[in-house]
Design goal:
- The chain is α+β, with helices and mostly antiparallel strands.
- Helix content is 29%, strand content 28%.
- The chain contains five helices and seven strands.
- The chain has helices spanning 10-21, 28-36, 46-49, 53-63, 84-96; strands spanning 70-73, 100-109, 113-120, 123-127, 135-138, 143-145, 155-167.
- Strands 1, 2, 3, 4, 5, 6 and 7 form a seven-stranded mixed sheet that branches.
Length: 170
């Protein structure tokens, strides 16, 4: 069994992984802060149902330490790209900004999952907390942002669920 196979805590791990990728030092306290941001009435069902986009927003806010040089934005929250092509075009524009460090994306297939993404040329690099396979690079053809994937082997991304972590100017 790998982390996340039996529980819905991938959102908490994704936040810790994103902050680590941004150069922040995380600890068990960071994970606890993420967990404590979830409404008490959602426990323990969040363990098997997983975390929602709204949960992730609350958790990120609670996990950013005071004075942290990281800014978080949700560029597609209210302006969802119309198509897979539009998603990747806007994704590329976001990552052209040198202050952008990484993002958390929401997957819907092969399973509901939160995972950290960054750009490496034309490929997308994913950081996860799966033992033995913490990093994975994928070509865009193996990813699809939309409601249905064209090929069974593609990962399907939710077009709204993009959480961008950037370095602040200060």
């Amino acid at each position: 069994m790998y982390q996340g196979e039996l529980d819905g805590l991938c959102g908490m791990y994704a936040i810790v992984n994103a902050l680590e990728e941004c150069g922040e030092t995380c600890s068990a306290e960071t994970f606890e802060s993420a967990c404590s941001a979830i409404a008490k009435n959602r426990w323990p069902s969040v363990l098997w149902e997983g975390t929602t986009f709204e949960d992730i927003q609350k958790m990120v806010k609670k996990c950013l330490p005071e004075g942290c040089p990281i800014k978080v934005s949700y560029p597609f929250k209210d302006n969802v790209p119309a198509s897979n092509k539009a998603y990747w075009s806007q994704f590329d524009l976001i990552f052209e900004d040198d202050s952008v460090l990484c993002a958390i994306v929401g997957l819907t297939k092969p399973s509901l999952h939160w995972i950290v993404a960054s750009k490496d040329g034309g490929r997308i690099c994913f950081t996860d907390s799966t033992p033995g396979k913490p990093y994975e690079r994928k070509n865009r053809t193996s990813l699809h942002a939309g409601s249905r994937r064209k090929k069974y082997s593609q990962w399907l991304l939710d077009k709204q669920e993009l959480i961008v972590f950037s370095r602040t100017n200060a």
